[in-house]
Amino acid sequence: MATVHLRIGDLVWGKLGRYPPWPGKVVSPPKDLKKPRGKKCHFVKFFGTEDHAWIKVEQLKPYHAHKEEMIKINKGKRFQQAVDAVEDFLKKAKGKEQNSDSKAESKGKKTPTKPLKILEEDDEDLSALKDPSEKPASSMEPISKRLKIIEEDTGSTSIQAADSTAINGSVTPTDKRIGFLGLGLMGSGIVSNLLKMGHLVTVWNRTAEKCDLFIQEGARLGRTPAEVASTCDITFSCVSDPKAARDLVMGPSGVLQGIRPGKCYIEMSTVDPETITELSQVITSRGGRFLEAPVAGSQQLSNDGMLVILAAGDRTVYEDCSSCFQAMGKTSFFLGEAGNAARMMLILNMVQGSFMATIAEGLTLAQATGQSQQTFLDILSQGQMASTFVDQKCQNILQGNFKPDYYLKHIQKDLRLAISMGDTANHPTPMAAAANEVYKRAKALDQSDNDISAVYRAYIH
Fold this sequence. Notes:
This protein has helices spanning 63-73, 77-106, 123-126, 161-169, 185-196, 212-216, 225-231, 242-250, 273-285, 299-303, 315-320, 322-328, 340-368, 373-380, 388-399, 408-424, 430-444, 457-460, and strands at 11-14, 22-26, 41-46, 52-56, 60-62, 150-151, 157-158, 178-181, 201-204, 220-221, 234-237, 264-267, 289-292, 295-296, 307-313, 329-334. It is an alpha/beta fold and 461 residues long.
């Protein structure tokens, strides 16, 4: 295969990680952005987005030569918008060239025809690369990535892989060493995306065998949480509950033993505000820097790098984690002082858990009164409560598929913590309390390690 030589201004198809090719233009990188060491690559600005990335030469193809091929294999409105933006950009550039030629001819001067080249970026040209429907990010999310939920021709709402191409393609990995503790449903997807986006990651898990796959993907192995914290600049933790979070920090060979002045520790587990306060105090007492960053989402969203990150604590740590949060999530929010993210996360999960219990109750009541459960779902999916979440969870129930995407035992834990938080604030949580009892019943029926949709079984036994 012949080597393709690219220059600044060339239009290309860029391929990054597991995402499909996306149209872009080779541009000059910002002066403060260093080229990755030991890699032959070009800096590419993607059309239809505000995103850019260093792309290896073997992952780049000339735009015109491969246009028909790419249009055949890629679908989706966002992708088509990007291709349209390229074509508009070419027409605009050609128009400028023709204008220039006519002006020269009108003065009696002949200028040689030159092949169309787009050698320099200017503000007018770059405006063609942006999605016109995109709105500015709110002040609450300076490190967010905006992803549109778009309507496909089928009428169903879905997140397209093509949308993630350009968005995750903008990640320039930090040169800081990253540690990650906990490779459960959420942690595994997060680490996979950190690695795919070029971060240097050291992993540890209580069950060491879970580390093997990530070692094969380029991660380093940490023998203990203390070792990870001491050898890494930024260490993330994502475990099951408050006790596990405390033990990881303050237990034997725990994180606290490896914390040194300037080291960063980010707690991503969904825990109560009191636990966050305690962890923040012990980490900062050793000169460390602390941030909480629980995530809203599921295993599938974690795998797709589409989590929503709620952060609170040390603002400078939040900013240092910019590339990490971009790799693992679609949006991040900074909520102020430590404890606020835990409070918001518990409220969100309280609502989700209560809603899931109500949906399950509706399905079983439909069956008990002789109504079709499928028809109930069909009607629901056409109304105001229609969502991907409702559709997926109801389909799981109708198919008897309760493979965990978010553990039932974890949502029950979150309901319990939310109720306790309500008690502390002297605020009533009767709906959450009722839902919690249903989940406790499901746990008694051995559904703890199934998906949250298995709460359905609490109503039929």
